[in-house]
Amino acid sequence: MAKSPSPTKAPPRRRMRGFERAVSLVGPELRSPAEKRGFAETKLLTHWAEIVGPDIADVALPLKIKFGRGMGGTLQVLTTGAHAPMLAMQKEVIIIRVNACYGYSAIKDVQITQTAPTGFAEGKVAFEGQKPRAKRKPDPERLSKATEGLDTITDPTLRDALRKLAGNIVSNQTNSNT
Hints:
By secondary structure, the protein is an alpha+beta fold. The protein has 8 helices and 3 strands. It has helices spanning 22-36, 43-46, 48-52, 54-57, 84-89, 91-102, 140-146, 156-177; strands at residues 60-67, 73-80, 107-115. A 3-stranded mixed β-sheet has the order 1-2-3. Strand 1 (60-67) and strand 2 form a beta hairpin. 11% of the residues are buried. Mean pLDDT is 75; it is low at 174-178.
């Protein structure tokens, strides 16, 4: 006699053939932790920089939303100590942009939580919007050696891609030697 599956564990969902949307694969795993932190929709977490703008996203991250008895909740935002006064002046802007994302007045207040520039367990607070370092220019002599013979390639798209690849490789070798 065959054993019946345990009632607590649901059988795995059969996947469709071909491509599937990433949100359908990752959505349930992301939804549960987000709901525990008060985010009914994960859009605020996944599209934070687009919602509040790059100037705020560079210095702040959404932490959680607390809902009380009244209308609207309190959005808790994490930032470093130096940026907290600037964020405090932009509370209304954050509220308007987040409520526009939700489509109704979901947020009535913003609470700013400060942390040290160097975190406790993580080593350092990292915000998504940090600016990348400026790229160094490759050494012209090494670049000409690397791109030697590319003029014989007839496909312009391939030729340009190989030139760009050679420039990136020469730049990375130059950066690692300095």
